[in-house]
From TrEMBL:
Xref: InterPro entries: FAD-dep_OxRdtase (IPR006076), FAD/NAD-bd_sf (IPR036188)
Protein name: FAD dependent oxidoreductase
Gene Ontology cellular-component annotations: cytoplasm
Coiled coil spans: none
Source superkingdom: Bacteria
PANTHER family cross-referenced by the UniProt entry: FAD-DEPENDENT OXIDOREDUCTASE FAMILY PROTEIN, SARCOSINE DEHYDROGENASE-RELATED
Species of origin: Rhodothermus marinus (strain ATCC 43812 / DSM 4252 / R-10) (Rhodothermus obamensis)
Sequence ranges assigned to domain FAD dependent oxidoreductase in this UniProt record: 6-331
Length: 348
């Protein structure tokens, strides 16, 4: 890639921020973001990552490379983005406990199985009647803070709030049309619009699904000062003097307003695993939207069908922290050589 190449990134969420950071040393990069606030998906995300995120605790696709890419990114931002290490994944049924025990036997370098008694001894605040996995490589970061720091350290111009309403690919570049009536020319455009994909007819036709999620923020009582990151059918992520609990999974929704019923469900489920949270005060309820590929649960990094210079970086789902740094790290090489992309992340 020539240093004189001009690349537009549409969207300043996690995908867009990782792309900007990966490309800013290789080309002239500019970011267009439609809103003033951070990407909406991450208002409802727990910021969790670990190598065995499937329901049966099996390795994720490209798990080693993904974790390495995330660690490189975290090393690059340093202590500007605090990282909480270690994750307790609680089995919420006997069947899942069987799967977890098998995972511990098969992947001892990733996880340690804790029988109920051992889990209770090590983590007395947590109820684990079926046992749990201790995952040292698991962790949590504030995705919103990571986005902020990546964009700042990349030093690229950010046009905000500016909505890209249309685009046109030409033989030698791409023209982006904004809601302010301006037209910008670039050599490539990487579309990372998150939930905003539905506003663009070319993207709305793709086999994606939007899923609303809600989290609640609790005031953490002193008795939970040593609470680890906990993942069961909900997650509990301590940050400072608060605990974030989430997330709901709502593929059918009509608005983004928080729901009192979902707040109550989250609080009840959190208290099932950490009873002490029942005494906590709900400080806030937040929502966001994740984009997924329902029938192929992997992210997308690909030229749009029939295009060469217009790319899509999307469908990170609940594994954005695991996959966004990895896919973004490929961009300097694959933008001009898309045939090098793994088939799994390409659009059909």
């Amino acid at each position: 890639m020539q240093p004189s190449s001009r690349i537009a990134i549409v969207g300043a969420g996690l995908a867009g921020a990782c792309a900007a950071f990966a490309l800013h040393r290789h080309a002239h990069v500019e970011v267009f973001e439609a809103t003033e606030a951070a990407d909406q998906a991450f208002r409802a995300a727990g910021g969790l990552f670990h190598p065995l995120m499937t329901r049966r605790a099996r390795p994720n696709w490209q798990h080693d490379a993904a974790l390495e890419a995330l660690e490189r990114l975290l090393a690059a931002v340093g202590d500007r983005v605090p990282v909480r290490r270690g994750l307790l994944r609680v089995a919420f049924s006997e069947k899942q406990a069987q799967d977890f025990r098998e995972a511990a036997r098969t992947y001892p370098h990733f996880v340690q199985w804790l029988a109920p008694e051992e889990a209770k001894e090590r983590f007395p605040q947590v109820q684990a009647p079926y046992g749990a996995l201790w995952i040292p490589q698991g962790g949590a970061v504030s995705a919103a803070r990571l986005i902020e720091v990546l964009l700042e350290q990349s030093g690229v111009p950010i046009h905000r709030p500016v909505r890209v309403v249309d685009w046109k690919e030409e033989p030698d570049g791409v023209r982006l049309h904004t809601d302010r009536g301006a037209v910008h020319r670039f050599d490539y455009a990487i579309l990372a619009p998150g939930y905003g994909y539905q506003a663009h007819p070319e993207l709305a036709r793709l086999p994606f699904q939007a899923v609303k999620g809600q989290v609640i923020c609790l005031q953490r009582p002193p008795s939970l000062d040593t609470l680890p990151l906990v993942l069961a059918n909900v997650h509990l992520a301590p940050y400072g003097d608060q605990v974030f609990v989430g997330s709901t999974y709502e593929p059918a929704f009509t608005d983004l307003a928080p729901s009192e019923a979902q707040t109550r469900w989250l609080l009840d489920e959190a208290a099932r695993w950490v009873p002490e949270v029942s005494r906590s005060t709900v400080v806030a309820a937040l929502t966001g939207v994740r984009v997924i590929r329902p029938h192929r649960p992997l992210p997308v990094l690909s030229p749009l069908p029939g295009r060469r210079r217009l790319w899509l970086f999307s469908a990170l789902g609940s594994r954005g922290l695991l996959y966004a740094p990895l896919l973004a790290s490929w961009l300097p090489e694959v933008l001009e050589r898309p045939e090098r992309l793994p088939e799994a992340v390409r659009l059909d």
